[in-house]
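Help: read this over?
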Amino acid sequence: MRSIFKDPKLQLEFEDKGYVVIDFLSLEEVAQLKDIYKELNGQPIQMGFSTSNMSMDADYRKKVSNTITSVFGNAVNKHFDRFKMFFGIFTSKQPNQEKGLCSMHQDPTYVDENKYQGITIWVPLIDTNETNGALEVIDRSHLLNEYPRSTLPRFPYNDLVPLLLEKYFKRLDIKAGQAYIGNSKVFHWSPSNKSNEERVAALAWMAEEESQMRCYYQDFKNPGKTMEVFELEADHYIENPLFSRPDESKAKKIGEVDSQFEPLNEAKMDAIINGVTSI
C-alpha cells in the first residue's frame, strides 16, 4: 500500500498508532459548517447521540454529505497524496445527556483493505474535552482485527471492553477544526455529553483515489454468519436509509465472505499494542 500523507512524519506516526491529530480546518470553515448544521436543521436529535445518516430525509443526508466533502476538500488536497472522500455526515451529542454514549467500535470496511486503506476523518466543531464527549481511542488497535467489518454496529469484543478501557484507554482533547485522521480499524468510542452545549462533529470517509468503494452487507435483524460483498458508488450510503441492502441494478455483487474476527486475549493485546513482535 502506498503512503497516505504528503508529510513523511505524519505517515510514520499514522503507521505506528493508527491515527494522527492535525490542524485541518480554518476558523472560517468551522463557522461555515456550524452555520450549515443550524440552517439545515435536520439532525435526528431525539436521542442523546445521533448521526445525519440516521435521518430518513434523503435530501438532508445529501446536503450534509455534499457540504462536508466540499468544506474538507482544501485540507484533504493539502495533506493527502491522491485520496478521495466518499461521503460525509454530522454527528451530534445533545447536552446534559446520560444516554449519549457512542460505544466502542471499528468503522465499517468501505474498500478492499488488502489493497487500500479506509480512512476516517473526524472534526469537532467545538473544543472537545472530558465533559462533552471527546473522542477516545486505543493506540495500535488497528492491528488487532484484520478482518472486514460489515455496516452493522456490532463490536465483536464486548466481553473485553472493561479490560480495554482499564489498560489502553486514551482520550483525545481535540480543538474545533482539528482533525482525527484514523485507520477505520482503530478501536474508538466517545462518552455522553454532560456539558451545557451540543457537541457536533463533521466526519468523512476516504481512501486512495484509485480504490473502488464496497459494502459488506448483513441484514440488520438477521445478520447470519456471512457478508455479501458489493462494489458500488458512494451515493448508496447517502441516498438510502442506514443499513440498506445495495440495489443490484446499481451495485455489483462480487461474492460473500465469512463474518469473522481475530480471537483476542490480554497477552495478545499487550503484545500488539505495546509493539512486541512475538508472544
